[in-house]
Design brief:
Blueprint (H helix, E strand, L loop, with lengths): L6 H10 L5 H8 L10 H16 L7 H15 L4 H4 L4 H4 L2 E2 L9 E2 L2 H17 L9 E7 L2 E5 L4 E3 L5 E2 L4 H4 L3 E2 L8 E7 L1 H8 L6 H9 L6 H8 L3 E5 L6 E3 L1 H6 L1 H9 L6 E8 L2 H7 L9 E4 L5 E5 L2 E6 L5 E12 L2 E7 L3 H7 L6 E5 L7 E7 L16 E4 L2 E4 L6 H15 L7 H9 L5 H6 L2 H6 L4 H16 L2 E2 H6 L8 H10 L2 H4 L4 H5 L6 H22 L5 E2 L4 H7 L10 E5 L7 H10 L3 E3 L8 E4 L5 H9 L3 E4 H8 L1
Parallel strand pairs: 2-12, 7-9, 21-22, 23-24, 23-25, 25-26
Antiparallel strand pairs: 1-6, 3-10, 3-11, 4-5, 4-8, 8-9, 11-12, 13-17, 14-15, 15-16, 17-18, 19-20
Helix pairs in contact: 1-3, 3-4, 16-17
Bound molecules: zinc ion.
Length: 650
């Protein structure tokens, strides 16, 4: 069973799923069951549910999917169905309008997301002609309770954010306002004392959420819950009464971790992070809201969200290097805001040692944009170690912790994945995703050289449409003309230990003409390389030498990496960025990106076009892709804003 919906989603699904099972619900969300295959009842239940989730600001499918697949399907079956005419489904009609809108909080799982939020505030400050450094921020604990609104006489659930349910009875039963506060303080959360829960309630209630639910239910109070209320161990905590830290961004960012840690753990109630907000009313108004959250507020959470799942299968997948990766599959589960159904178990030694197999109960975690990770195996499953390669059926051997397919030359998965890696690393050509490459492979193509030799007719023979074939041939030609760094071209061949970072380091001390004649002794002299890496590089380079020359001869336009050893010696007095590798990304506010690049070069920096292991700084403008940031973060690159960069170079 999926066990991780947000509390708001859970509330809606629990109360409004009708006869639709949770498994069916997820199968539909995941696209495993199509609108046209659903029974009338399931279709209607799903429409109601999807509509409610949409209105709560936490939709599970896109608006288009909702309209074009599901609503259209109902329209096709019953053109005059009452649901098509209702603006508000019946389930919501029993609720009452909230005195003001209650929105969710946007979440950040890494500092770069916070930095982007700060950039937007800086921009709003600029537009309001306010001085950013003087603006006050507030940091409060993020309560993990049950959202409610107190207008002074009545208490409401958050519901869909516009309309909630009247739960004033909880106050009549003895629910008090935290900190001896008065009624009528607006939005807040119903929370249960953590120590009390562990000591008195944990035996009866699975979690504190169930206690919160019990104390607002219409039915008679459980004596334990009654005692909890009498003792003041469950309270309504208005956000305005939360203890906080206040100050300017410079102070907050200078001591971010310590401030967050302190505020996070200030209360004796469950908290799952902190909330940051800007206090200036004019800027708040300028930033406004989305349908889902206030733009002037953001929650900081860190690696705290985990979920337990029961495994359905462990599927072997052969990578381009021949290593067979175990991919674990489980029922669709929501974790840190994403619906997931797969995670990777690193290698087969881990599968073997921790007994990861069908039936195993595992705990997963996921922080923000990063792929889910297995934290712990709670109950072992039935271990299945593949005997042969899932792609070519060839023999597998153990290489350390890894299972390896040794059929390097003829394994379809290795060939197709290597081709994909090549085009992905070049980064200037679209259209060569897994499905296109499989078509090409099935047509008998085995090398990149053969792909470049294909005509439009050739692509059409493999099942590409005429327009698509024309486009793809044009892209291939363009990828030859468009200048590309020599280190990137070499990295595209995917030799082990020769990722972009190492290739860049090599080319910084050795021109392309000499790369293939490098000796182990020379390589181990380079900073960051050992004798062992030297051995692997020499072998790896030899294995691709022929293909490299053949492809290069097609006419790729390579840019030579400047040899940095001499450059450094020639440079005069050092600027703060001299000798550093800087990548600019996103749209810059203060100046043109090209001008900034020129300036950086003039100050002695090397400007990269994409993040690699040797990048020192990633300077972010606005609208920076999440993938880029997470890649940079993983490679330990320092991520700074445009403003920070300008401050640094003075
Ligand atoms: Zn294979």
């Amino acid at each position: 069973m999926p066990s991780s919906l947000s509390p708001e989603q859970q509330e809606i699904v629990d109360t409004h799923a009708g006869d639709l099972t949770l498994a069916s619900f997820f199968a539909i969300v995941e696209g495993e069951r199509q609108a046209e295959d659903l029974s009338d009842n399931d279709l209607l239940d799903f429409l109601q549910l999807a509509n409610l989730l949409y209105r709560s600001g936490e939709p599970v499918i896109s608006d288009d999917e909702y309209d074009f697949s599901f609503l259209n399907e109902l329209r096709r079956r019953y053109p005059a169905h009452p649901f098509l005419g209702t603006v508000e489904p019946e389930a919501v009609a029993k609720t009452v309008e909230l005195p003001e809108r209650m929105l969710s909080t946007d979440k950040a799982y890494n500092f770069s997301t916070i930095q982007r939020w700060i950039n937007r505030i800086e921009k709003a400050a600029h537009e309001s002609q306010k001085i950013f450094s003087e603006l006050q921020f507030r940091v409060t604990p993020k309560l993990d309770g049950f959202a409610a609104f107190d207008d002074g006489t009545r208490l409401y659930t958050r519901g869909d954010g516009r309309r909630g349910t009247d739960i004033t009875r909880a106050m009549e039963r003895g629910l008090q306002v935290a900190e001896g506060g008065l009624r009528g303080l607006g939005p807040g959360e119903i929370v249960v004392n953590r120590e009390w829960f562990t000591r008195k309630l944990a035996g009866t209630f699975e979690n504190s959420r169930n206690v919160q639910a019990a104390l607002i239910k219409e039915k008679e109070l459980d004596p334990l819950v009654e005692e909890t209320l009498c003792e003041g161990k469950a309270v309504f905590y208005p956000f305005s009464l939360l203890p906080d830290w206040r100050g300017p961004w410079a102070e907050l960012s200078a001591d971010f971790t310590a401030i967050v840690e302190r505020i996070w753990h200030l209360l004796e109630y469950n908290t799952d992070g902190v909330v940051l907000e800007i206090l200036d009313e004019e800027i708040k108004e300028r930033m406004g809201d989305t349908r889902h959250h206030h733009r002037w507020q953001i929650a900081w959470k860190q690696n705290t969200e985990t979920v337990e799942v029961r495994l359905l299968a462990v599927v072997p997948q052969t990578s381009r290097s021949g290593r067979v990766n175990p991919v674990v599959e489980f029922p669709p589960t929501r974790l840190s805001g994403a619906l997931i159904r797969r995670a990777t178990a690193h290698h087969y030694a881990m599968v073997r040692d921790l007994k990861i197999g069908p039936g195993a109960l595992i705990r997963l975690s996921r922080s923000g944009e990063v792929i889910p990770k297995i934290e712990e195996v709670l109950e072992p499953g039935e271990v299945q170690i593949p005997k042969s390669c899932p792609s070519c059926n060839g023999k597998l051997i153990w290489e350390g912790d890894w299972l390896l397919c040794t059929n390097q030359l003829h394994c379809p998965a290795q060939i197709v994945n290597s081709m994909e890696h090549f085009f992905k690393t070049l980064g200037n050509i679209d259209g060569f995703g897994p499905s296109a490459l499989h078509k090409i492979y099935n047509g008998g193509v085995r090398t990149l050289g053969e792909i470049y030799a294909l005509s439009e007719g050739g692509f059409q023979k493999f099942g590409f449409g005429p327009k698509q074939a024309e486009n793809i041939v044009a892209q291939l030609q363009r990828s030859l003309r468009e200048p590309i760094e020599d280190w990137r071209f070499l990295a595209a061949f995917g030799v082990r230990r020769m990722g972009a970072g190492n290739c860049e380091k090599l080319f910084a001390v050795c021109p392309l003409e000499d790369i293939f004649s490098l000796k182990i002794e020379q390589i181990k002299e380079i900073k960051g390389f050992s004798e062992k890496i030297g051995e692997e590089l020499v072998d790896g380079l030899a294995s691709i030498h022929r293909e490299f020359d053949q492809l290069r001869a097609l006419g790729f336009t390579l840019i030579s990496t400047p040899l940095t050893v001499e450059n450094e010696a020639e440079q005069g007095p050092a600027s703060p960025i001299s000798g550093k590798v800087i990548v600019f990304t996103g749209s810059m506010v203060q100046g043109k990106r090209d001008d900034m690049k020129k300036q950086a070069k003039a100050l002695g920096a090397r400007v990269g076009s994409s993040v690699s292991g040797s990048t020192d700084f990633l300077v972010c403008g606005e609208k920076v892709g999440a993938a880029k940031l997470s890649r940079a973060e993983q490679s330990g690159v320092q991520i700074i804003s445009e403003a920070e960069y300008l401050a640094m170079i003075g």
